[in-house]
Design brief:
Keywords: Signal. By secondary structure, this protein is mainly β. It is built from 3 helices and 28 strands. The chain folds into 2 domains: 79 residues, no CATH class; 292 residues, TolB, C-terminal domain (Neuraminidase). The strands form 6 sheets. An 8-stranded mixed β-sheet has the order 2-1-3-4-25-24-23-22, with no helix packed on it.
């Protein structure tokens, strides 16, 4: 198949067979499903009279001026992620409400995806006085509508009525024995917490943790379960304060380990500006943490601060994080939610969509939306569900995510 390719200042056709065998090359059709290949050599020099990007939050790298959404490839190996017939389809939308921000969890048994609305954002309908909303959609309903040829798919969003102990949900993973594992930023004096929540009526929840030796956390942001020890690891930046619904932070920005079997809580990594997403490799020996320090809430954005994904080794005994190294620096916005596929590729929600890095930290491609994506979740082989604030997208590709339950 052929990729559209930028070459100098003219669009030409780049035949993927030059780099890969025809058997691995994807077949893409439709204007919204095209793959644009960008040869890095052709964009290394812009020239003295060119217009350069001066705002990572406002100007994006799209040298072909292709209308989003589309797949932007930087390395031929991205074809192994996309497969033969990748597609991007919107399956839920509400332009008045940022209902799909974070905490995506796939429930395999019912083929549903749960998520939380934006906490403190302009369209989040939540602030110091109001909690955000957790809801879910049915992928069965979405795929049935797509198969029936519905042009503008917009599935029903079922809202959860969670108890008052669950305030400003921002991260989630699992499920754990059928329950959602949610981390919450807290609101006002109501503490950040980790809870198990029932995704079915009556949506009851059990708080597992809401303090560190009597001190409230800052605003817990994201969470993953270690694949071997089953301990819970979570990040705790000050974004609740920076978005106006939490008091000033009283703890450093740190990553914590919580053992639900013994109740022990410990710090496993520090030295961050504002850490964000977290993801473990399949064997649990390595972990990735995104530092989104460039995004400062009411302090404003500062693109000289971190927008970096760091890699750590996980100590086999203490499970503290060792040997910190730069994995990748994102070129647009900040790295938010992180996921990993079975080939070890790292997916990061960023300012222009989803960035996909190979295990060496090379950017091999993007799922380009032209706006920020906070998080995403694999829903079985070949399906990636993307949270895009006022919209949810279903991306079909060839990759498969790690088991998070």
């Amino acid at each position: 198949m052929r990729f559209t390719c930028v070459h100098g200042r003219q669009a030409v056709l780049f035949t993927i067979a030059n780099a890969l065998t025809a058997a691995t090359a994807p077949t893409v059709s439709g204007s919204n499903n095209q793959v644009v290949f960008i040869n890095p050599k052709d964009t290394n020099v812009f020239g003295p009279k060119a217009t350069f990007r001066d705002n990572t939050f406002g100007t994006f790298f799209n040298p072909t001026n292709t209308a989003p959404p589309f797949f932007q490839a930087f390395h031929p190996s991205f074809s192994s992620v996309l497969g033969r017939s990748p597609s991007i389809k919107r399956i839920a939308s509400d332009p008045t409400f940022a209902f799909a921000h974070e905490a995506p969890i796939w429930l395999e048994e019912t083929d549903e995806v749960t998520f939380a609305s934006n906490a403190g954002g302009p369209l989040g309908r939540s602030d110091l006085e109001r909690n955000n909303q957790v809801g879910k959609i049915s992928l069965k309903e979405a795929e049935r509508m797509i198969e029936n040829g519905v042009k503008d798919v917009n599935v029903t969003v079922t809202k959860f009525s969670l108890p008052e102990t669950v305030q400003m949900t921002n991260g989630g993973t699992g499920p754990v024995n059928g329950s959602l594992l949610l981390v919450n930023s807290g609101r006002g004096s109501l503490p950040p917490s980790i809870v198990l929540a029932n995704p079915q009526t009556p949506f009851n929840a059990t708080v597992l943790l809401d303090n560190y030796f009597g001190r409230q956390f800052n605003s817990i942001n994201d969470v993953k379960i270690h694949p071997i020890s089953k301990a819970i690891f979570f990040t705790d930046p000050p974004y609740g304060y920076l978005n106006g619904f939490r008091p000033e932070p009283l703890l450093p920005s740190q990553v914590y380990r919580f053992d639900p079997f013994t109740g022990v809580v410990s710090v496993v990594a520090d030295g961050f500006d504002r850490m964000n997403g977290i993801a473990f490799t399949q064997d649990g020996d390595k972990v990735y943490i995104g530092d989104s320090g460039a995004g400062g809430g009411f302090l404003g954005n500062n693109q000289t601060e971190p927008a970096t994904i760091y890699a750590f080794d996980v100590d086999p005994v203490s499970q503290t994080f060792r040997n910190r190294s730069v994995f990748a620096f994102v070129d647009t916005g900040i790295p938010d939610g992180l996921q990993i596929d079975t080939q070890g590729n790292v997916y990061a929600g960023c300012g222009d969509g989803i960035h996909v890095f190979n295990p060496s930290g090379l950017l091999i491609g993007k799922i380009y939306f032209g706006t920020s994506v906070a998080n995403m979740v694999f829903a079985g082989k070949g399906r990636l569900v993307v949270m895009r604030e006022t919209e949810v997208y279903l991306v079909t590709l060839d990759a498969e995510g790690l088991i998070l339950s």
